[in-house]
Each structure stands twice: as C-alpha cells, then as structure tokens.
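Quick entry between incubations.
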Amino acid sequence: MLTSQQYDAFYSFYKNLLDEFEEMEIELQIDEHVENEDYCFIMSMYGSYSEKTSFTLLDSSEIDFSKEELKLMLTNYFRIDSHLADQVLDIKK
Amino acid sequence: MNLKEFFLSLAAQNQIVEVYFNEENRDPVFGFKINNIDSEVLIEDNDNLWSKIENVINDAFLSSDLIDKDEGDTSYFIQSDLSCIKTAKYFSWVSETEQFWIESHDTEFYFENVDFSELDIILITKEYDSFKIREEIELKKCSQANNMMRFILSTKIY
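Done. Structure below.
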C-alpha cells in the first residue's frame, strides 16, 4: 500500500498546486511508464471563479436600439408583460 | 436606447440579466439571457436583431480587453442594485490556455511496483474551502508487488 506519508506528499502537492484557483477540477491520467512503473500527470483542468465588479462591458457601445423594437423583443421572446416592458424602457403612455 | 441602459434598466426592475461570452462548442458566441431565456430565441424569427445585438456584445468583449487574459466562458450577471458579478472559466478552449498551464506546470508522479490497474483516472476537486481526491480510498488500497516501492515526484514549474 501507499504509506500515509507517500499519500500525504501526493495530496499536499496537488493541494498546493491548486491553491491559486477558486474552484478547479483536474483529471490525472495514469499510464504505465515502464514495466512495474506507473506514472500520473495532469490530463485536463476545469475551473472557474467569481468576482464582484462594475458593469463596464458595454460602456463604449453607442448603437441605439429603438424602444419599440426592444419592447417587442421583451414581450414576444422573453415573457415580459407589456406594462413591465414600458417601465423598463421608460415608455410613457 | 443603448444596450447598457437597456440591461441596467431590466436589472433595476429585478429581472435576471446575464451578458456572456461562450466558447463551449469551440466557436465563440456572444449573447445575453433575460430571466434565463437565451438570446438565441431570436435567431429563428428575428435574426437581424439578434445579429445586431450579438455584434455589439462581441465588440464590447473584444474592445474592453476583458478576455485578453485568455479566460474561457465569461458571464456578467447584473444585480438589481446595478452592481455586477463576473464568473469566468480560467482556461480557454479556443486559445488552449489549459494546455499551456499544464505544460508550464509539468508534473508527474512515478509509482514503482504499485498496481494501478483498477484506476485509469484520478479526479481532484478543489472548491472554496475543500480539497478532495475522489480516488483516495482506491489509492490508499493500491497493493505493491513487493516491499520495494519508489515514489518520485517530478515537477517543473517555470
């Protein structure tokens, strides 16, 4: 069996390696290197993070959309009722 | 009305608004969701409007350098107080940053005389405050052919 020290070395190494990530899943592939010797290595990684920020993504966008076009989009495709769409688009009746 | 005003106004009315860049199918897509309904619903009947909006979002992502770090799928969730939560995948399929990271952290563990024949893959999961090796039990049970076992870590971190 792997001794606890050997397992701990394995465990600690990957724990430290993934410290920089908020959430991460890695797959280690095990392959036979030579007879009686296996080795494992990182095959794939899948992780993400979240952060609170300001919404500046569209700051430089200057293209205008007509309010009528947006209202039709909201009511026809996004299940927003007409009254709420008017509020969102500041359409006065 | 420009798109930013539109999305902020929706969020201020307590609607769930997400603006995203997605490359899951290895073909970057830029879009938005309102109350979890994807802008792709526009494609069939209103392709012109969908294209126009997608182009604006595409340009915004590219010009703002927000995907310059070669991150993968990225979403901005606008909150009702008009703040924003960004979620992003660390690695990009398209620019293969995952492979770059793996190569630059080239790490191998060698096990001699340990039978791993029942294990093909070891899955390791790290979350905010937990770290788990799914095959922990199997790893600890791996038998050795004799008392000679070599356990070598070979790593190159640049």
